[in-house]
Amino acid sequence: MTNKLVQEAPFHPGYEDVSYKTEASPVIAELESFRKMNAHYLNFSEVIVNFCKSPKQSSASS
User: Fold this and answer.
1) For the chain, what is the radius of gyration of the CA atoms?
2) 30: which residues sit within 8 A by CB, 6+ positions away?
3) What is the pLDDT of residues 2-61, one digit of tens each?
4) pTM above 0.85, yes or no
5) Rounded to whole angstroms, how far apart are CA atoms 25 and 58?
């Protein structure tokens, strides 16, 4: 039966990525906000790591 259904529904290239550009599901919108928040935290942690790796400057100069 599966082979018959595959033969009756041929592949249409370009339709596998079809989406509605103007509408987003609430789940996708929430995931996108989590991704943005995660990217913000990762960028901030990278700044902290780079600061810790930087050579120490002496605060008291003679």
Assistant:
1) 26
2) none
3) 566 556 656 666 665 555 566 677 888 899 999 999 999 999 999 999 999 988 765 555
4) no
5) 54
CB contact set of 32 (below 8 Å; sequence gap of 6+): 24
SS (H, E, C) the chain: CHHHHHHHCCCCCCCCCCCCCCCCCHHHHHHHHHHHHHHHHHHHHHHHHHHHHCCCCCCCCC
